[in-house]
Amino acid sequence: MSGFPIYYRALEKATKLLSLLLLMVFAASFLMPLYWMVTGSFKLQTVTMAVPPEFFPSNPTLENWQNLFSNMWPVWRWVVNSVAVSLLTVVLVLLISSLTGYGFGKKKFPGSNALFFILLSTMFLPNQVIMIPLFLLVRALHLTDTTLGVYFAMALPMLSSPFGVFLIKQFCSSIPDELLDAAKIDGASEWVTYTKIVLPLLKPALAALSIFTFNQAWNYFMWHMILAVDKFQYTIPVGASFIARTPAFGKTVTNVGLSMAGGTFGAFFMIVFFIAFQQYFIKGITIGAVKG
Amino acid sequence: MELILDIKTLAKNMWKGRSGYLFIAPGYLAFLAFLLVPLLFAISLSFYKSSFDISARQFVGFEQYLRLASDPVFKKALLNTINYTVVIVPATLLISLVIALLIDPLGMRLQSFFRGAFYLPGIAGGVILSVVWLWIFNPTYGLLNYTLGLLGIEPVLWLSSAPQSFWAVCAVVLTFTVGQPIILFLAGLAGIPQDVLDAALVDGASGLQKTWYIRLPLLRPVILFVLATQTIQVFQLWEVIFMLTRGGPYNSSTSLVYLIYQTAFISAKYGKASAIGVVLLLIIMAVTILQMRFWKDTDL
Fold this sequence. Notes:
Chain A has 2 domains: about 5-65, no CATH class; about 75-285, Orthogonal Bundle (MetI-like fold). By secondary structure, chain A is mostly helical. Chain A is built from 14 helices and no strands. A two-stranded antiparallel ribbon of chain B has the order 1-2.
């Protein structure tokens, strides 16, 4: 680089600074709604409706949070519901995808190509199409009568994850056949080979898939919305949406501060989860798209 | 004789591959029970007239589809869905590409900071973001009209007038769709070999020239992937509409999926809703096939 004149260096530095500034502006505008929501949750009803708006709560109040945690809405129950549904989905998807993906990736059997093709062709299926039959199934089986039934019903449309199977199959193809053959020669059964050799090798893919699935299950709003018949069955997004859209008893407008507290509460768990597992999130996004 | 032999070898091969069948069995059964059979049932349901009591459904042939063809609300939903796609997908692509190109030259720490910052709204999700946008869009005490007022612009009824409601939905969706493409583009940019860029520098290429002639062509597979996934996602746009406008006013912001929701789960017209679902399915299939073919043609 030493061959370049000084003004070039200065120009480079200026562009760098300018692009950093531009990025800051972009990021600030994309994060503005979240900032507005969090600070709004600490504003009194009168302040939330004030013109001009207060950019930072000058008299922060905990009233909205106290209201949120009062007995009107079972918000902690929603957390339990969301966590239970998402975890159940992750466990079932991991189990099913790893078994099926390994079967398609490493086993030779007649019809495997055709069966895999049928599965893969539904990867981009719009979920709303199968929600009607699944809803009728859930209704006919009275799954929403019990808590466990609701959780299973909420996980139902995500169970057969063509994406998960595809991902694991791709990952399996990087496992050398010699390794599996060696295990066979050593007398390992199919099941032992799968649990002791294949599963450990699939760990990175399974980690990415579980984060991806957890996030997807958490935000599977429409299906949760359709299934939940009372407020004890809501998941967090459903609950937050109800608070934001339904005025309290005897009121005509929704309580903005309370809505913001509900929204902040709803966003909190996923954001903490994201910060804790950021690397896996990114892997989960790029794993399907960028080869290698 | 030959046929018998064939069946014999097939049976032999199937027996040999029995562990394969066992491994795929749980997943494939779940796939059949909770995806393929429901899908086929939905398609068959679209040829019936059916209300809340599904056992009393009546076969009507193609009537549901013929009715849709002359249904103004359906036409509006279809047109809106296409318009949403035409607005949101290119905008997402452009914004995320520009942001990714700005982030790419930064150091590791700043990169991961900005990557996280732009992905954060997507993590919160469309429903949660809509909760705060309901307030921001409020005509009398919302932040947006206040800010516009400072610029001398009259208050706008963002959610209760057309076509503003359509643009309001677009804007909110854009705030959380860019995160994922940015991460994909950054991964793609990181994969471009440094020696190619160095060679261009030696040849005297400017920063913009390097981007235009080297980075963008090399990013093409990622761009196509983002186009495909975003198109499919926007075609299924629903939650923001549900939260902000309920499709209104006068269906000006409704979408196909919102109409499916309304028809099936509010009005309990399962046959009609299934027919709309099949139309959506066909469109998404067509788009996917088109994009796959395009993919093949470009040799990537």
